Every structure is written in C-alpha cells, then in structure tokens.
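Open question from group meeting: does this chain pack into something compact, or does most of it stay loose? Before anyone orders reagents, we agreed to write out a predicted structure and look at it together. Recording both the input and the output here so the notebook holds the full record.
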Amino acid sequence: MGAFEPSASKRKGASLGARLRWPFDRFAELEFTSPLAFAVLAVVYVASRIPWLDQGYGSDPDAWRVALSTQHFWSEGEYLPSRLPGFPLHELVTAAAWEQGWVWTNLSTVLISLAGVYLFARVAREMELPNRGILTLGFAFTPFLWINSVMTIDYMWALTFLLAAYLALLRRSPTLAGVCLGIAAGFRLTSLAMLLPFWLLLARTGRRGEIYSLTRMSAVIALFAYLPVLMEYGFTLLNFYDESVPWEVVVRQVGKDGLGVIGALAVLAALTLSIWRLRRFPGDLLRDPQVLTWTTAVLVFAALYARLPHEVAYLIPIFPFGFFLLSRYVGRWLLLPTLVVVVLAGFVDLHSSDDTLDIGTNTVTSARLGDGMLFTDLDTRQDRLDYARELREITAGGKLELPALVVVGSIYPELVVLFQDELEIVVLDEDDREAISPLSDPGHACDSSCDVFGSVEYVSLLDSDQLKQLIREGNFVYFTADAARRTLALFGYRIEETFGLKTPVELELALDEPPLGEGAAPIAR
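Structure tokens returned:
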C-alpha cells in the first residue's frame, strides 16, 4: 500500500459520508424552475394560503382602502386612489376581480406572488447561486412574505415585477427590464428606487449604453400608469402621511415583525458563525457586480423605510436580495437550519409581556413562547372583522339618539366596505380629495341617505372645529376608544371634552381598539 493511499476503512467511511450527503446536496440544489418541481411547489404554496383567503381583504387597513377605492369606482364611475401617491395598477387589477369578492382579490395576490417565487428561482439559476433549492423554499415560505402574499395589497405585485426586471437585465434585455420596472412602479412608486442598483450593475459590467434604454422605458411606463392620478392631483400626489415613529417601535417592527424574534436571532447567529466568509464581503463589493447590486438594493430600500417607517412591509423589496447575500456568505449546512427557523418563527415565536422588543431586562425575563406571526395575522383579521361588525350592530337599528355622529377611527374602511349595501358613502368636497386617503380620511357614510336628517353618520376622525360645528347643528356624538386616541395624536385635543356643548359619548366594545396587522406602527391615521 502506498504511503498516501487511504486504508479500506477510511474509503468505506468516505463512501458512507458521501452517500449520506448525496440526498441533502440534491435537495439543496433542487431546480424549482423545472416544471414538475415547480408544480409541486405551486400546489403546496397555494394550499398553505387557503386559511387566509376568506378572512377579509387583509389585516392591513390599506387593503380595505383599496377595496373602498374599487367600490367607489364601480358605484360612481370615478377613480380616486386608495391613498396617495396612488397605486393605480393595483387598484385596476383589484377592480377587475372586485365583483367576485375578497376570496378572488386575495387569490390574485397569491398567484402573482407565486409567479414571483418562480422568477426568484430563475434569477438564482441565472446567477448560478449555490443552494438554490433551499433558497427558493425559504423565500416562498418566509412568514412575512406569506402574510402579504394573501391580502389585497400591492407589495407582492410590485416585488414580482421588480424580480422580472432583474431577470430581464441579467439576460441583457434592458428595454424589457425597463417595462417590468415601470409596471412595478405602477403598483408601488418606490420600486423606481431600484434604478440605482440597476445602473451600478450595468456600469460595472461594461453595459453603460443600456442605462438609457432601461431608464427611459421605466419612466415612460410609470408615467403612463400614473396618468389617472396625475390628472386629478398633479404633483401633489407626492403627499404622504409624515408622522414620526419612536425608535423602539422601529426596532420591534424590524426585529419582531420582519422575521420573527426567533427568525431574526437565527439569521444573526448564522452571520456570526459565518464571519470568516463575511471577511470577503468588502472585497466582493469591488470585485463582484452582483454583490454590489444586492447590497445597494438593501441599502436603498432600508433608507426609504428609515425615512417613513410606518410599516415594515416597506422593506419587502429587500427580502430577495437579502436571501441572495445569505446564499453567498452562509454555508449550506448552516443555511438550511437558519431558513427552517425563519419559517417556523411564523408558527411559534418569542413574546414579551409588554409586546416590545429591546434589550431591557423586563423584555428578556418576560419572554415566552407563543403564536408566531402567521397565527397572529389570522387572529388580527378575524378581530378586525368582529370589531367592525360589533360597531355596526351597536350603532344601527335605533340604538343611538338621532341625529347621531359616530367617530370610528381606523376601522372606517372595513366598516363601510363590509356594510356597503346598507350605507351611502360620500366624499365631502373637492378640497378633501387632496387628503392622503381621500375616501377614508375625510369621507363619511350614512344609514340609507346622507340627505335625510336624523340618520346615523359615520366618520373616521374630525378636527375640533368640525366637531364643534356638528354638535351645534344638533348631532349627538359617539366615539370609540381608538378614535379618541387617534384624535389626540393627530389633532391634539380630547374628543370627550364638552367644549361647553353636548358631551360626546364613548361606545363600549369588546376591544378598545382594532388590532394592527403585523409590522404596522401605531400611527394616528
């Protein structure tokens, strides 16, 4: 036997190890772009979303604002955006499925999100990333993306077309990439921020001549998509709800609602254990155009979120590029358990007694296992539906002194959409159309007809002058605890004060306020 020839026992051991690794390696590199593999994934993906389909339009009130915008379009023949700066393409596709109800509008989001998973797998294959099978499954079932893939809202529509633009650019089709990015912007205007990473990619790969085609087509398609909003608002469409959010809430959003506490800890642990690989990262920014593109995309969308951290869903465009970076710097045997924990955190996660996330002693000592964000989101959807139905029940049918004005707070979109057949919904006047949510912030709804004196009238919030005037006109005012909190935060006065007039009455409901969906900051809107 030669000096360097392995013994028989060592050859057998190596062979056994190879046999044990083989199925894992095949699974890690599974190509979900192949028809059979993707068909199996598609069945599981859609089936996993079924419990959410018939639970309203979503836990995010903005999903109900989209429904309200669509309802107004079909009833009045007039387009008003669900909220500024407008989401015209999403409001258009929702209008197409509107008559079939929320099951079908939610299902449309599921299907476009599934297309996004396929595009993710195609992009990963195009770049020949390692561990593509693990990566695609993690992306498909990451809990926060899961929640947003099954509500009537625009985030996953925009992400899918953003991934299509990236794939087109990788395949040297800058005009098609511009079309796709422009469509993504038509669903969500901030998608245009992806131009900067794309410019860097083209510049670093010697394709500077394609920058003009990409940019021109993106701008043309986005401009065309926004024509209905521009015709109504001009450039005032860039108005937005500029309310600061405490840093503790931002930490909670990113850490708890983005990946779940356990999921976030797993990712941090994986990065820590991969520090020897991460040492290459600064050099890779200079050597590898793709790493530069991914990193720039993460930084750009993180900066947009930091400017207005109202919902962690604003960070959704970061997810695919974060996954690409994980694939590059976290080894196979560490990547799989990390992504498994991220997915499991959607079912079981850590909670604290005050439901905050910081480094304080109380948060650590009171931590306990509880439902993850998937179950919490289902509960939130049901609780918001129950809240709106209970509110309608205790305010309808002659149970209030008339004429009654009910200030309902953030549940207004759900309330008026759920009971659209019983209410007349009105936009107050032309000035109110410039509100950030023109149909839900200044609008009001009445039993039967707002022209009939002595009906029950519902509004979202009122400033003090509006409230005083309505009381002087003889209205009896009722309000929810949620409306009182939001009135104080937004207008700086307590709605329960009398102003020397009739005292508004607080309504008693099972919940003081409707719960917020995962990742939403408790802002006044």
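Observations to bring back to the group:
The beta strands are 348-351, 368-371, 404-407, 423-426, 444-447, 456-459, 476-479, 505-506.
The first strand starts at residue 348 and ends at 351.
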